[in-house]
Design brief:
heterodimer; A: alpha+beta; Mth169, Chain: A; 27% strand; elongated; B: alpha/beta; Rossmann fold; 5 helices
Chain lengths: 82, 231
């Protein structure tokens, strides 16, 4: 069955405490190449039947209304998995 | 006067809220997230806790519960609605209040007796306080950092929609020290700290007078009883 991948990230302007803590942990490795980490979410949505433009429109709608909160997050991509 | 408290899967402080309403002199009514029925209540409290395990975002899944369509409808018609902690997060996710709540800036869960200033008393939940009154009630959250874009923030401040502000310590990085908000109409109020945990001597925050004697939260529940009698 086809899958649609939706990716959501916290807005650039917002502090991402989880990302910041992770960045500090990663900086203990390597030679200081890693300067920042931001943590987002990836949703894998399984579809019954065919992925139509109408269905993608529907997924875009629920991505905006449910999967993300536009006050704090952006939907950065919606695509059909290979 | 019937005040409903909605229990969601993962609600934690629903029974404390019911008890606070009873102590204030109201009839406390348990409501269930899966019903499409407000059982004739005159006001609604969305309690604290971790609805749906904070999955997706705090309050996000609860905001789409069956009963929330009735809550949004009632709120838009003017019924008093109070959201405490996770209840505040649910109101924000349901777009009944502005802005958003994100992980505390220091990354840790925090629990403390928190001093607040009541910044707006023109609501059915705050009318029992005096303007600018300083109160102390417990705070306990991991994701209580209030944020909003500059335009929204300006509007909230300009229209006097900040209901409560943190004093002395900003415990979670909230912008403008915002601890609680009201909507434009004033019937919907949300705050991160917990008034229902400061309603009974012996079980509240410490005061200069005596240990655990703080009852600064009780006026919130008494306010709504007085307000609904008048309306």
């Amino acid at each position: 069955m086809p899958k649609v991948i939706v990716e959501v990230m916290p807005k650039e302007v917002l502090l991402d405490p989880a990302g910041k803590a992770t960045a500090r942990a990663l900086q203990r490795f390597g030679d200081g190449e890693i300067t920042d980490v931001r943590i987002g979410k990836r949703f894998e949505i399984t579809i019954s039947g065919e992925v139509t433009p109408k269905l993608l429109e529907h997924i875009a709608e629920v991505s905006k209304d449910v999967l993300s909160n536009d006050v704090i997050e952006d939907v950065i991509s919606i695509r059909v998995a290979d | 006067m019937r005040v409903g408290v909605i229990t969601f899967p993962g609600s934690l402080d629903d029974r404390d809220a019911l008890r606070a309403i009873t102590l204030a002199g109201g009839d406390a009514v348990s409501l269930w997230h899966g019903d499409h029925d407000l059982h004739g209540v005159d006001a609604i409290v969305l309690p604290g806790g971790f609805s749906y395990g904070d999955y997706l975002r705090c309050g996000a899944i609860a905001a789409h519960s069956p009963i929330m369509s009735e809550v949004v409808d009632a709120a838009n018609k003017g019924m008093p609605v109070l959201g405490i902690c996770n209840g505040f997060q649910i109101l924000v996710e349901a777009h009944l209040l502005a802005g958003g709540l994100i992980r505390n800036d220091h990354g840790s869960f925090i629990r403390r007796d928190q001093k607040l200033r009541v910044d707006n008393i023109d609501t059915p939940w705050t009318s029992g306080y005096t303007q600018g009154q300083e109160i102390t009630i417990p705070l306990k959250n991991g994701e209580g950092g209030f944020i909003a874009d500059d335009e929204t923030l300006k509007q909230l401040e300009g229209d006097g929609l900040v209901a409560f502000r943190y004093l002395e310590v900003n415990p979670n990085g909230s912008l403008n020290d915002i601890a609680g908000l009201r909507n434009a109409r004033g019937n919907v109020v949300g705050l991160m700290p917990h008034p229902e945990h400061a309603v009974e001597p012996g079980f509240g925050p410490d005061t200069p007078a005596a240990m655990s004697s703080g009852t600064d939260g009780l006026a919130m529940f008494q306010s709504v009883l007085a307000a609904t009698v008048l309306s």
